[in-house]
Amino acid sequence: MTRLFFLHLPILLLWTLFKLVEGTDSSYHDQVVRDFLKEDQGSGHTNNWAVLVCSSRYWFNYRHMANTLGMYRTVKRLGIPDSNIILMLADDVSCNARNRFPASVYSNGRRNLDLYGENIEVDYRGYEVTVENFLRLLTGRVEPSVPRSKRLLTDEKSNVFVYMTGHGGAEFLKFQDNEEISAFDIADAFEQMWQKKRYHEIFFMIDTCQANTMYSKFYSPNILATGSSELGESSYSYENDADIGVAVIDRYTHLVLSYLENINKTSRSTMQQLFDAYDFNRMRSHAGVRTDLFKRDPSKVLLTEFFGGIAQADIVAAEDVIDAQRPRKGGK
Fold it and tell me: Between the CA of residue 242 and those of 95, 132, 157, what are the distances in Å?
């Protein structure tokens, strides 16, 4: 008998809730729904975007392209569609004459997962990956001829994940090995985005030498930032492939991707749990996190709020639905 009671307990609770709201007006019902949805609303954003940048050229920088493609695969798996991903690859090692595995990119010596594959959409490639194009992309100051697929069409409800990898130093990152973007450049671009209501929250991640200096100049609100190494530290490669002949992934990005591989679209894992997983013994550098510009506690921010997608749902009052279903005069 006791067992039967507990089996029906959820039904009894739902019936009780129904009786509580029964007989009240529709506005109360609407508020109940809003309050229920609000509990799991998180940041309050309605859409997700990802900007993934490999700024390095040349075959020996194979790992930087693998870093970026690994992140690309992860955000797609977690629900961000290609239409909301801007992928920038400064080189195409998959088609390099030295690649023993043409049209493929791997991030481990077992080569059990081709990161390039058949369903990749590169938005900026080769000499299109420049400091100017990156800054124009962020700020929305693109030429009229630039197609929609190469535009960051965000708004004030967008959560934006920005990932960058390449060779860098104190407060700079190289592009194409012939120009640099500074920490000041990115900070000012983010401020323009904020002023123009082009984001709700930003999560900035960078894997390069002295990476943490790249977010030291940020001053705009609602930005959470992390990097692979402190001032004066290098960011190290993780694994070499004897057949490919070069390193195929960096330690920091490998750790992050390994962690994300264990979550899915419904995961409750938080940003703080990812940060707690940072391990000097595995990375050989001190990864950093900056939270002072971010108004929320990272322990309450889900990873999927930046690495995943979100389906937008609009709440409509019951009387509006009824009104919309009524026939109009002179109509059919």
Answer: 18, 37, 46
Asked if 153 and 144 touch (Cβ cutoff 8 Å), the reply is no
Point out the catalytic residue in the list 45, 209, 254, 286.
Answer: 209
Which is the catalytic residue, given 167, 200, 254, 286?
Answer: 167
Q: For the whole model, what pTM was predicted?
A: 0.84
Which residues of the chain fall short of a pLDDT of 50? 1-9, 17, 21, 24, 32-33, 36-39, 332
pLDDT at 321: 53
Q: Please list, residue by residue across 184-195, b when 16 or more beta carbons sit within 10 angstroms of its beta carbon and e when fewer do.
A: ebbbbbbbebbe
Question: SS3 sequence, the chain?
Answer: CHHHHHHCHHHHHHHHHHHHHCCCCHHHHHHHHHHHHHCCCCCCCCEEEEEEEECCCCHHHHHHHHHHHHHHHHHHHCCCCHHHEEEEECCCHHHCCCCCCCCCCCCCCCCCCCCCCCCCCCCEEHHHCCHHHHHHHHHCCCCCCCCHHHCCCCCCCEEEEEEEECCEECCEEEECCCEEEEHHHHHHHHHHHHHCCCCCEEEEEEECCCHHHHHCCCCCCCEEEEECCCCCCCCCEEEEECCCCEEEEEHHHHHHHHHHCCCCCCCCCEHHHHHHCCCHHHHCCCCEEECCCCCCCHHHCECHHHHCCCCCCCCCCHHHHHHHHCCCCCCC
Backbone angles phi and psi of 132, in degrees to 5: -60, -50
Q: Residue 317's pLDDT is what?
A: 61
Residue 167 a catalytic site member = yes
Asked if 323 and 280 count as a contact pair (C-beta separation under 8 A), the reply is no
The tokens describing 287, both together, are 């990864």
**Is 95 marked active-site?**
no
Whole-angstrom Cα distance, residue 227 to residue 291? 12
Question: Measured at the alpha carbon of residue 11, what is the angle toward residues 6 and 15, in degrees to the nearest 5?
Answer: 135
